[in-house]
Design brief:
Largest sheet: 8 strands, parallel, barrel
Helix content: 25-40%
Structural class: alpha/beta
CATH topology: TIM Barrel
Strand content: 25-35%
Strand order of the largest sheet: 1-4-5-6-7-10-11-12
Oligomer: single chain
CATH class: Alpha Beta
Distance between the termini: 10 Å
Radius of gyration: 16 Å
Shape: globular
CATH superfamily: Aldolase class I
Number of domains: 1
């Protein structure tokens, strides 16, 4: 398991939102590359990067900045946000991005997801963005009628190996993760799971580590607002996971 710091980019800046709402935006840096370098210095082995403009519009808008981040680091990044065609995937893979995150496009039953998995293997992961037990798409603005667990089971059947499970109601509010939701996901899949949304302190990290001991398929924990506000020290969180 590893701690994965997040960088959300909107209009070229490093920001954090509350439950994905752009009206609740806080700008933490005008230089996302510098933030990425800081997380690298603090011990991160992987950084989670999201093109928020891409997620909201369906077309990536911050590709140049993200490619600059990838080029500037010794560690790898994973990238999501509005990725709905292979040309964008190719561009990121060519830049040695570790993996590309599909979300809205994964909901479609048009064969695109399966083709990308067949071609790029483990470098394709799927973001499972849940709100009140249903899947949300298009930058979390639209909540579908698709049941989260049904969607997860379907992804596994379609060949997905890794998912990023985010509880939208917990994202950016610093109230701790939805442990019941995480447990429910773990009970219904053998895919590797990255937990995201609401991780606020070391106790939260320890609780998720306990779940990994029980279920054995948690690959990582994404941390965002907590490390930007200082509620959690990234170095300490990484050390905690390493020491186990």
């Amino acid at each position: 398991m590893q701690i994965i710091p997040a960088i959300d980019i909107r209009k070229g800046k490093c920001v954090r939102l509350i439950m994905g709402d752009v009206r609740d935006e806080t700008v933490y840096s005008k230089e996302p590359v510098d933030v990425a370098k800081l997380w690298q210095v603090n011990g991160a082995r992987l950084i989670h990067v999201v093109d928020l403009d891409g997620a909201l519009t369906g077309t990536p808008k911050n590709i140049d900045i993200i490619l600059k981040i990838a080029k500037s680091l010794k560690i790898k990044i994973e990238v999501g946000g509005g990725i709905r065609d292979e040309e964008i995937i190719k561009k990121y893979i060519k830049a040695d991005v570790k993996r590309v995150i599909l979300s809205t496009s994964a909901l479609a039953q048009d064969g695109f997801l399966e083709k990308m998995i067949e071609k790029y293997k483990d470098r394709i992961v799927v973001g499972v963005d849940a709100k009140d037990g249903k899947i949300a798409v298009k930058g979390w603005r639209d909540v579908t009628n698709v049941n989260t667990i049904d969607f997860i089971k379907d992804l596994e059947k379609r060949g997905v190996k890794t998912i990023i499970y985010t509880d939208i109601n917990r994202d950016g509010v610093l109230k701790g993760p939805n442990i019941k939701g995480v447990v429910k996901v773990l009970k219904h899949t053998r895919m590797r799971v990255i937990v995201s949304g609401g991780v606020t302190n070391l106790k939260n990290v320890q609780r998720i580590m306990e779940l990994d001991k029980k279920y054995g398929n948690i690959e990582g924990i994404i941390v965002g607002k907590a490390i930007y506000t200082g509620a959690m020290d990234l170095k300490e969180a990484i050390r905690l996971v390493k020491d186990v």
